[in-house]
């Protein structure tokens, strides 16, 4: 049975070229970039090249890129680092209800430490309105953090408009661009952002490496301390193979992104149209157009996402749901709840995310097997029959 | 294609060996851990209070075992089911002056209710657990029997499983002793081989049910009232009847010449009735909501008014004793014991046996001193 992977938003396979680029840096060129000798210089050179690639993708300067261990670390760093460094300016953060937990949890913790946090709700399509952000800001607001695109429902936020308002009011603007970098154009000047997080394994790079872009002049305190790496902003010996892989992966994306996005948009729309044609009482989650090229998220009434997911898994089809229990965490998706989906529909949600290696036959096979699964599950559901 | 079976894996040694045995018998085994979302996220700096089983560690152990024996493993969401089908009952029984048995309810509604349903939703017809009990085919019918290991037998907790579901249930450990199970686990190198078993109620942290209830109940339930003796004389005060259970001696806060025991909890009058040891004994009891596991027994139920002799257990940790059903309707029955029974506890279950066959069970409503 051929397996089908529809979970590219969770993680992507490293591109073979990325793997090749990384290989020499485990054994042959293993140096520590902080060392003065030739081994160190070699590693530093590779790191500088990678930094150049990342910065040119983002339209940034190399010295504005700080490599981290993950997107999560980059988000934590942005929130804590900016709040800590700007205590004299204020103590207020504005964020949204649909952020990734990597932003939500640090914000919650900051609140515990006595900072003020305001969470702005999106509309029913999952779009955050710039005027709502502006209204939430006070003269104490130091940082606004709004994700570029949502990881569950794929909605792309009007970051440029939001950032313009934020800058007018004199606060820093951060965006979690983990879902967009490598998939759609992301330019820090176009977006007007001061800080931006990304993660390499979301764009065919390795796991364990991310970046925080920090616009020159932004006051930020280190999150990890204990060494002079990354211009004293992030201590710890650099993950050279990972950093090289990250650079290589973005280099590939900058060439292939446009055509991949076009193809994925086509397949995405075919997939959604097919599902809506073959199954009744299916609801798209998120905005129909203003969304990532590779994201499909819908709720099927009367059945649980968990059952759909497991049935698909048994057929070798990998998908994701907003309600699955992986490690004792059972709350229904905070994203679906905050766009006003009732509990039942949150539990009946399923997310399919396409990628570089998705083929049209896979979409066709999904459209063949999935309606059968839904029909089987609905036949068992006591709720479905009663409805006309 | 091999027969599919879903095994409920808690991460403990019993269910791990159950999965292993089925796999070796050639079943297509799917491991499942029922996630009750009990593991509180550790708050900042404060370790979460984790019940003994079903928490994160249980999930991780189960996942490792599944990987070791080469079966897929899923974590399924049962948090809402646990809340609605077990915990609500647990709390309301206590405030009604009864002492509930949540394990019986969990088996009835979750493991052999919702889990069976979820298995069917995956096209899996059978469900297995690591219970020490047996399902055997006798003629055309499937019967539930006690586990071979008399010390570990858990058939008591299965008394409310539905008769028609028995053909879909497997208990791979029914013919093994706990020692044998541990030996198998050791021999096969299962990482959980020496994990201690849990005796606690999985959703009650630290096994402190009073603290758990206090967190759950609103103030209106904390009605203090009187502790009275059998004649009605007030001996002291109580802090809500849910704090007490029949047979309890400690923590009454009354000094008396002879030791006093809780004999009865009177919800209507909001009283705790205490008495001497002798007053704890019942010659008969009333039970409600019988579930019959044996088709024959259910069909000929009326005949049981004719002094048919059975054996029964009125709580888990107690030997079977002779019993006679004296009255029986669809919803209610009365049972007479040749020998008076100590501390018949409303809320617990009476389970009927002939030899090692489980006939059925019912929730105890109240004990009576005489054999009416």
Could you characterize what this model shows?
The complex is a heterodimer of chains A (388) and B (372). By secondary structure, chain A is of the alpha/beta class. Chain A has two domains: 4-10 and 257-380, Aspartate Aminotransferase, domain 1, CATH 3.90.1150; 16-252, Type I PLP-dependent aspartate aminotransferase-like (Major domain) (Aspartate Aminotransferase, domain 2). In chain A, 41% of the residues lie in helices and 13% in strands. Chain A has 13 helices and twelve strands. Chain A has helices at residues 16-22, 38-58, 71-85, 101-112, 130-136, 159-168, 188-191, 229-232, 240-278, 305-314, 334-338, 343-347, 360-380, and strands spanning 4-5, 65-68, 92-96, 116-120, 141-145, 172-176, 195-199, 210-214, 282-284, 295-300, 317-318, 349-353. In chain A, the strands form three sheets. Chain A has a seven-stranded mixed beta sheet, with helices on both faces. In chain A, strand 5, helix 6 (159-168) and strand 6 (172-176) form a beta-alpha-beta unit. Chain A is globular. Chain B is of the alpha/beta class and 372 residues long. Chain B has three domains: 4-207, Rossmann fold; 223-275, SH3 type barrels; 280-368, Elongation Factor Tu (Ef-tu), domain 3 (Beta Barrel), CATH 2.40.30.10. Chain B is 23% helix and 30% strand. Chain B contains seven helices and 17 strands. Chain B has a six-stranded antiparallel barrel. A five-stranded parallel beta sheet of chain B has the order 3-2-1-4-7, sandwiched between helices. Residues 40-53 of chain B have low confidence and may be disordered. Chains A and B meet through helix 10 and helix 13 of A and helix 2, strand 3 and helix 4 of B.
């Amino acid at each position: 049975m051929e397996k089908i992977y529809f979970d590219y938003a969770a993680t992507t396979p490293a591109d073979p070229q990325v793997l090749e680029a990384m290989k020499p840096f485990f054994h042959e060129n293993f140096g520590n970039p902080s060392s003065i000798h030739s081994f160190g210089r070699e590693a530093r050179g590779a790191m500088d090249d990678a930094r150049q690639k990342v910065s040119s993708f983002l339209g940034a300067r190399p010295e504005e890129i700080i490599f981290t261990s993950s997107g999560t670390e980059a988000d934590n760093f942005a929130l804590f680092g900016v709040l800590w460094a700007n205590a004299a300016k204020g103590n207020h953060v504005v964020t949204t209800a649909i952020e990734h937990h990597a932003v939500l949890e640090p914000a919650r913790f900051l609140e515990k430490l006595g900072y003020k946090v305001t969470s702005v709700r999106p509309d029913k399509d999952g779009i955050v309105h710039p005027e709502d952000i502006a209204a939430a800001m006070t003269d104490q607001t130091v940082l606004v953090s709004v994700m570029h695109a949502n990881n569950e429902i794929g909605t792309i936020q009007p970051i440029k408009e939001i950032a313009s308002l934020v800058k007018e009011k004199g606060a820093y603007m951060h965006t979690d661009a983990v879902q967009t970098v490598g998939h759609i154009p992301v330019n820090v000047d176009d977006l007007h952002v001061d800080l931006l997080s990304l993660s390499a394994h979301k764009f065919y790079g390795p796991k364990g490496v991310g970046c925080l872009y920090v616009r020159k002049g932004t006051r930020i305190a280190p999150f990890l301390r204990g060494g002079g790496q990354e211009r004293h902003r992030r201590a710890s010996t650099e993950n050279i193979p990972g950093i090289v892989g990250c650079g290589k992966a973005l280099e590939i994306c900058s060439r292939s992104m446009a055509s991949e996005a076009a193809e994925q948009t086509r397949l995405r729309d075919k997939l959604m149209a097919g599902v809506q044609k073959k199954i009744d009482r299916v609801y798209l989650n998120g905005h129909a157009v203003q969304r990532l090229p590779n994201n499909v998220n819908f709720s099927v009434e009367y059945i649980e996402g968990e059952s759909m997911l497991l049935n698909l898994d048994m057929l070798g089809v990998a998908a994701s749901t907003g309600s699955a229990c992986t490690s004792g965490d059972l709350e229904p998706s905070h994203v679906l709840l905050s766009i006003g989906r009732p509990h039942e529909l949150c539990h009946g949600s399923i997310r399919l995310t396409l990628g570089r290696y998705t083929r049209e036959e896979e979409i066709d096979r999904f459209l063949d097997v999935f309606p059968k699964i839904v029909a089987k599950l609905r036949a068992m559901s006591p709720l479905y029959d009663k409805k006309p | 294609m091999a027969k599919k079976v879903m095994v409920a894996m808690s991460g403990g040694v019993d269910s791990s060996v159950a999965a292993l045995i089925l796999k070796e018998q050639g079943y297509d085994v799917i491991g499942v851990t029922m996630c009750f979302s009990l593991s509180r996220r550790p708050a900042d700096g404060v370790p979460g209070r984790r019940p003994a089983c079903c928490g994160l560690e249980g999930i991780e152990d189960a996942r490792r075992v599944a990987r070791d024996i080469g079966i897929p493993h899923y974590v399924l969401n049962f948090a809402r089911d646990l809340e609605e089908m077990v915990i609500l009952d647990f709390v309301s029984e206590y405030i009604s002056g009864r002492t509930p048995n949540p394990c019986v309810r969990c088996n009835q509604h979750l493991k052999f209710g919702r889990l069976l349903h979820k298995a069917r939703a995956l096209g899996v017809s059978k469900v297995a657990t690591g219970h020490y009990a047996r399902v055997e085919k006798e003629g055309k019918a499937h019967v539930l029997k006690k586990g071979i290991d008399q010390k570990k037998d858990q058939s008591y907790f299965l008394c409310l499983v539905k008769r028609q579901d028995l053909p879909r249930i497997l208990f791979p450990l029914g013919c093994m002793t706990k020692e044998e199970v541990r030996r198998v686990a050791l021999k096969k190198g299962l990482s959980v081989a020496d994990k201690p078993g849990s005796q606690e109620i999985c959703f009650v942290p630290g096994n402190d049910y009073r603290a758990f209830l206090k967190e759950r109940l609103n103030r209106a339930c904390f009605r203090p009232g009187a502790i009275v003796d059998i004649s009605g004389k007030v001996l002291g005060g109580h802090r809500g009847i849910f704090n007490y259970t029949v047979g309890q001696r400690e923590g009454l806060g009354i000094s008396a010449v002879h030791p006093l025991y809780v004999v009865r909890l009177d919800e209507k009058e909001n009283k705790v009735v205490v008495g001497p040891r002798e007053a704890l004994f019942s010659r008969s009891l009333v039970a409600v909501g019988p579930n019959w596991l044996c088709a024959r027994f259910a069909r000929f139920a009326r005949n049981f008014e004719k002094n048919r002799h059975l054996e029964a257990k009125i709580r888990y940790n107690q030997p079977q004793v002779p019993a006679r059903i004296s009255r029986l309707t669809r919803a209610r029955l009365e049972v007479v014991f040749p020998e008076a029974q100590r501390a018949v506890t409303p809320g617990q279950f009476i389970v009927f046996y002939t030899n090692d066959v489980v006939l059925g069970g019912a929730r105890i409503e109240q004990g009576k001193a005489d054999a009416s």
